[in-house]
Specification:
Blueprint lengths: L5 E10 L8 E17 L3 E8 L13 H12 L6 E7 L10 H16 L6 H16 L7 H6 L2 E6 L4 E5 L6 E7 L5 H6 L7 H19 L3 H7 L6 H4 L6 H10 L4 E4 L6 E5 L2 H17 L4 E6 L7 E2 L1
Helix pairs in contact: 1-2, 1-3, 2-3, 6-7, 9-10
Bound molecules: L-homoserine (HSE).
L-homoserine (HSE) binds next to helix 5.
Length: 311
Amino acid sequence: MSNQGIKAFGPASIGNLAVGFDILGLCLDKPGDEVVIRKCNEPGVRITKITGHKGRLPYETELNTAGKAVQSMLKALDLTHQGLEIEVHKKLPLGSGMGSSAASAVAAVVGVNELLRLGLSKREILPYAIDGEEVASKSRHADNVAPSMLGGIILCTNHNTLDVHRLYVPRGLYVVVVHPDIEILTAEARAILSKEVPLAAMIQQTADLAGLILGLTTSDFGLIGRSLRDSVIEPQRSKLIPGFYEVQEAAMLGGALGCSISGAGPSMFGLFSDSTKAENAAEAMQRAWKKHKIASTIYLSGVNQEGAKVY
Ligand code: HSE
């Protein structure tokens, strides 16, 4: 083993993808978190360094998404005698809706799989990353962890058995994520949600989820555009995001197929069939937030088909 250990990358992701609350997610090329894992003599898992978090993330293994994920992995594989040190280099903003907690957890388990030469598949180590992400979101769902791990657009039809499916992604699908300089904690954005869904909204949402999947499968950008909307969660969460409807309008006027909240927010995403339109619309979204005196950062990406990786 080299003293430098193993370095692994966990990419950002868009949870929900408007129409698939907790069950649909898309993997971005960048940004992403980096994790360095080293073996050490003392048994157990320790977080030795965290950068890019402004002192906000816990060093306690149990409370840290990367630490918890690795701990869960070692326990399940009967490897608790193993000593591991973890450095977490946060490149993703916290509380951004871009799957920050998932990215660290995913990178950590991918790194351990490589370092210990376990030879497990990404699908096999997925549950451990979910155990880690659960620490931050206080809920068990795979819509960030699964795409960050596997890449692509992923549908999870069962969170207990982790029945995850890669959807077909049409050529030329571009993604814009604009991250405003405000923070929303996932646990809080979940706490405001009503437990009831009106029947009409349920009908629309199931129709749109089916439409989106069919549109992706058949490369029908028109159908993708008619389906990429959220009748259930967005009306409740949009009030947490100042300027939400202006930013959405800017994206749609700029030619977005659809635009909604990325994960639990406050970032907003748009899907596009044309990269020039995507760039121009991203700037228009940024200008809309600027009118509210909110600075923002633009991320342009294709759909990352590879997911997490070891360098
Ligand atoms: N599906 C999750 C939510 C994503 O929207 O709350 C964030 O973990």
